[in-house]
DNA sequence: AAAGGTTGCAACCGCTGGTCT
DNA sequence: CAGACCAGCGGTTGCAACCTT
């Protein structure tokens, strides 16, 4: 202990996580939860800071994460949501089960933005100055400034607006898809569901605090919904699709609050 | 085969807002 | 009410893998 009574600061590791560290963190959180992230490294014996542990869990270790390439549907969802929400990656992630905000952000910067630029040679006329002069900094994730930020939104908006309607299923066909295929849905394990991103339930708090479990639809940002519905009809498709993937969240929430969650998530994944 | 360039992604940093004391 | 603490978010960086010359 120091004079002030604090613990002497342990040298904290940085950089890539080793498999041993991953295992320590994973088993600690699965058996104890994470009431307070700053205590997690101390209690689990990791030489990392709490922030780093939190990030590693959310972006990599959390059960139910999808890995690998984004599907065409996911791409469309990102483009659609980005066009109305901007760089609100965590909000966008809420509609992409199993994807993290970090993953979506990286995907946008490394692929989607470029794909759009490639497919839009005609824009050289109107916005050639902006696109040619700042595209290099854009593509290299240049420093934040109002101009590039605005351009981000312009890019994603135009991309969405110019998409042929055939590639974006109508609300009608989407509903049909739901009714036709509801029985063919893959069943989610609860751990998958709780780890996937449900727009109606703040599962991250729920994980350690069961009082949040019964939060329901009113938790959605109403302004967000209004904006989405006013601007783009296919954004409703996004919402439907998301709900479609996670139809039984209330039932699962009750299941979680019953305390069986950890047992089953352990069985399913470890 | 090797050097240099590019890409993708994991992780860090700094800021913000909420909660607690 | 103010300050401390914490979680969450978005921007940025570092580096390994891959590609090109």
UniProtKB/TrEMBL annotation:
<dbReference type="GO" id="GO:0045893">
    <property type="term" value="P:positive regulation of DNA-templated transcription"/>
</dbReference>
<feature type="domain" description="HTH myb-type">
    <location>
        <begin position="62"/>
        <end position="116"/>
    </location>
</feature>
<keyword id="KW-0677">Repeat</keyword>
<dbReference type="GO" id="GO:0005634">
    <property type="term" value="C:nucleus"/>
</dbReference>
<feature type="domain" description="Myb-like">
    <location>
        <begin position="62"/>
        <end position="112"/>
    </location>
</feature>
<dbReference type="InterPro" id="IPR001005">
    <property type="entry name" value="SANT/Myb"/>
</dbReference>
<keyword id="KW-0805">Transcription regulation</keyword>
<protein>
    <submittedName>
        <fullName>Transcription factor LAF1</fullName>
    </submittedName>
</protein>
<dbReference type="InterPro" id="IPR009057">
    <property type="entry name" value="Homeodomain-like_sf"/>
</dbReference>
<dbReference type="GO" id="GO:0003677">
    <property type="term" value="F:DNA binding"/>
</dbReference>
<feature type="domain" description="HTH myb-type">
    <location>
        <begin position="9"/>
        <end position="61"/>
    </location>
</feature>
<dbReference type="InterPro" id="IPR051953">
    <property type="entry name" value="Plant_SW-associated_TFs"/>
</dbReference>
<dbReference type="Pfam" id="PF00249">
    <property type="entry name" value="Myb_DNA-binding"/>
</dbReference>
<keyword id="KW-0539">Nucleus</keyword>
<dbReference type="InterPro" id="IPR017930">
    <property type="entry name" value="Myb_dom"/>
</dbReference>
<keyword id="KW-0804">Transcription</keyword>
<feature type="domain" description="Myb-like">
    <location>
        <begin position="9"/>
        <end position="61"/>
    </location>
</feature>
<keyword id="KW-0238">DNA-binding</keyword>
<keyword id="KW-0010">Activator</keyword>
């Amino acid at each position: 202990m120091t004079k002030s009574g604090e613990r002497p600061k342990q040298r904290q590791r940085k950089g890539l996580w080793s498999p041993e560290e991953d295992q320590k963190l994973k088993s600690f959180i699965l058996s104890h939860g994470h009431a307070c992230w700053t205590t997690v490294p101390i209690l689990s014996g990791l030489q990392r800071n709490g922030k780093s542990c939190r990030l590693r869990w959310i972006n990599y270790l959390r059960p139910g994460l999808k890995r690998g390439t984004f599907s065409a549907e996911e791409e469309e969802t990102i483009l659609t949501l980005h066009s109305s929400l901007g760089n609100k990656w965590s909000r966008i992630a809420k509609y992409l089960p199993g994807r993290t905000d970090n993953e979506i952000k990286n995907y946008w910067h490394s692929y989607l933005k470029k794909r759009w630029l490639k497919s839009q040679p005609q824009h050289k006329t109107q916005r050639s100055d902006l696109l040619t002069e700042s595209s290099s900094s854009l593509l290299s994730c240049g420093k934040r400034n109002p101009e590039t930020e605005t351009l981000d939104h312009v890019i994603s908006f135009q991309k969405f607006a110019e998409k042929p309607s055939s590639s974006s299923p109508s609300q009608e066909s989407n509903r049909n898809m739901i009714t036709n295929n509801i029985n063919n849905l893959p069943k989610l394990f609860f751990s998958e569901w709780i780890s996937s991103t449900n727009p109606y339930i703040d599962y991250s708090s729920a994980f350690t605090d069961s009082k949040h479990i019964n939060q329901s639809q009113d938790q959605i940002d109403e302004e967000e919904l209004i904006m989405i519905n006013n601007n783009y009809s296919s954004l409703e498709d996004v919402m439907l699709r998301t709900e479609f993937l996670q139809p039984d969240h209330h039932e699962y929430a009750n299941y979680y609050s019953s305390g069986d969650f950890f047992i089953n998530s352990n069985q399913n994944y470890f």
